[in-house]
Write a structure and sequence with these properties.
By secondary structure, this protein is an all-alpha fold. It is 78% helix and 0% strand. The chain is built from 32 helices and no strands. The two termini are 95 Å apart. It comes from Cyprinus carpio (Common carp). Residues 21-405, 430-496 form the CIP2A N-terminal domain.
Length: 700
Amino acid sequence: MDVSTCLKSLLLAIRQYRNNRSTVNASQLQKHIEDVSGLKCGGVLFSGQVLPSECLSGLMEVAGDPNTSHALTGSIIFLLAQFVSDGEAKEAFHSSYNFTGTLAAIIHCNRTTPEEPLVLQCLNVLQRLTYNVKTLHCASHIHELISFLMQHVQSCNDDIVKACLGLMANLCRHDISVQSHIKSQSNVKAFYRALINLLGHNCLTVVIFVLSILSSLTLNEEVGQKLFNAKNIHQTFQLIFNITVNGDGTLTRNYAVDLLVDLLKNPKIADNLTKYKHLSVCLSEVLGLLHTKDPDTASKVMELLVALCSVPVLRKHVCETVLRPPAARLQPGTRKGVQARGSEPSLALVHWVLSPLDGPEQCYMQALSLLAELFEEAIDSSLCSSAQSFVELLLQEVLVLLQSPDSTEGDHTPHRTSCFLMIVSLCISSKVCSQVVLKTLELMSHLRQQMPEMETSFYRILQDQRMVTPLSLALTSNCREYVQVALRILVEAKHVHKWMVMHACFFFFFSNVGIIDVYEQKLSALACKESRLQDLLEAKALALSQADRLIAQYRCQRAQAEAEARKLASLLKDTERKKEDLQTELNDHLLEVERLKSDSQQLLEHNGRLQAVADQHQELKGTYNQLLSRYDKNEGMLKELQAAHISLTQQAEGLRKTNEGLKLQQERTVAELTEKEQQIKGLKTDVLNKERKITGEQWK
């Protein structure tokens, strides 16, 4: 099944799944994803056509849906992860499909279960996706992703720790907004302590990740100055060089090189590296990696060497190590000679310079740039004589390459040709050098009509004063072909400096070569015209330079202002959101406190009333008991008195006639009894009143 048919089937399955997220549709979609995974369709998927774009957008949408099963999401990520290493696909992931935001959203949805294989898969893909790429700080769930990484660098799972640290190193590197966000977190000190504790980890990859993060966040702060002080930095150098030379994989080596490149931007650290006692040995071991067949490793090593060359003292060290007097050499002139002397780092550089144009562009362009740096250092120094024999070999190889039939093919020819001329112009003048320059200019002259940028490079190179010597040597050559090529180049070059033409003509005239008389008048006219044009060009160049400088300043200021505005807007938004959440929570708490306070007050008041009633009840109960006791006592007495009264009354009736004296006594006794009855009635009345009072209060 061809790629187009597979993509159509995939798009149909995506639409069916979005319309009905059933198990059957999910299984069907996963099957189509696996079919596409088995095809080499990266060029088609990221071609910008409608069908592949819809497929990718649909896959992103399905993967970012929290309701999608882990199995289906994992298969989508596995498919897309195959293209992360491709430059164009990586750019499309960031600019068109927000793959970073999708993966961050998946991690955020599964933040409570970091041990899930899907989380580790997303972290690993994100690490590859964000390497050497600045992530947009406003991308979705980036803040949540950073919080997740800060939290889980202390995980018990080493795979999670390594993935989190690698991703954090990518996000922090050269991204001020991410660095500011991390430093603004409340747990940043605990995060620093966790990183410092990880410096003792038994995995060197983890240590490199930690050093990279700390250098990005703290290099210019007090913590970083303590970590990377003169006492510790030599151990860091040794660690970086050991990992670069003997690292456990390309990934670790890449991060080690990046770390050293970043550290070299600090003048104090760069100065400490110049004093490192093992620098020469380490440089030799690093240069030995140039003999590898892996272009990625070679590219990273050359990136490190270019960074070292940015420091003048280190540049001299690199130049001495590369261009040191070699052992016995074979005669130059063939590619076999280069291969036979592969133990020399300079020859490894030549190998990458002469690599096929269909290979990795970065390798041979970096090799050319590095050679140009080294030759510029070698000129007018004690290394000049050491470099001379190597230059002869290089020029022979370049000449063979330029004369090959396929030297005009490939999109990168203008860049490499320009770099060749830059290197050659730095080399010592010689016959071979002139031949290389002439062949290169002739090649550029043929290609300038087909490639617009080649024409610009062609005229710019002809305006270089270093072209005078090789063109003059060609005009005075005994070879008719060289003379004709040089004259043809001069005639075609309408924008050549006046002094260059005059110098070439003068040199040629006094060498008694009779062909120059034919072109003298035409060249003089061209020179006069060039003089006028050159004045205009210089004025225009000055204006353009000023405009470019102003534009660059404006862009830089605008970028800084936009970054600061985005950071402030993000911080303001977070602050407002947190303020609103806290205000809502505070209001809820206040309402709850007021309600509880009111309930408590009511309960206290009710309890007080009950306690008062209970106290009154106890008091009345005691009084009632006393009165009841007195009442019982008085009632007994009353009964006794009544019995006595009856007895006395009977006696009185019997003795009335005989004892009048007892009558008076009886009357006094009755009076006393009456008085006591009144007291008893009064007591009963008091008891009844108190009982009514208690009953009334209870009723209230």
